[in-house]
Amino acid sequence: AMVFLGLINNIFFLIIMSSAQRIVDHFNRPSDLGIVEWSCTVCGLFANAINSLLTTYNISYDIRFIANTILMAIGLIGSAFSPEFWFACASIVFIGFSCNFGESVCLGYLVYLRKQHYVRFWGIGTGAAGVLGSCYSALCTALDKPDETGQKKSGFDYKLSFECLIPLVFIYFCCYFFV
């Protein structure tokens, strides 16, 4: 369960970062690649501080984890159904925040439970997320094919590429309670 928590918590962030070019191509915004990457990383500056603040107010780890799962789902659903580039970037902010906040919550919870030995399993999941996330993005890109005009067209539907990831949110939620 801890391996899956580390994997799922980080995989969406890595998929976004690996798919940034595909995202800007989908919205025909080739010069905005940096905005996608910035959207995914900016909240990392605040996520750990917010978790620390919630700890000082004695907010339970369960509530924080549930909130993180909801933010993760909002980000994925928003990315899948985004009608425009800026809405997609706003959704990506949720994904980036969720990754950083979730890591802070989960690792803090292990210390609270005095189960720091599980951190190695988190690390295995995080490493696997890097490999699987970039492979998923590469697969989506490999399925892209040119249309009649020679422009790249997604062979693997852009919307579907995010919808396929939504069930992982439910697995993530269940894994937390198994740990």
Explain how this protein is built.
This protein is mainly alpha-helical and 179 residues long. Helix content is 77%, strand content 2%. The protein contains 9 helices and 2 strands, in the order αααααααββαα. The protein has helices at residues 2-18, 20-26, 33-41, 44-56, 61-81, 85-112, 119-142, 158-163, 166-178; strands at residues 145-146, 152-153. It has a two-stranded antiparallel ribbon. It is globular. The chain starts with a helix and ends with a helix.
Topology of helices and strands:
Layout: H1 2-18, H2 20-26, H3 33-41, H4 44-56, H5 61-81, H6 85-112, H7 119-142, E1 145-146, E2 152-153, H8 158-163, H9 166-178
Antiparallel strand pairs: 1-2
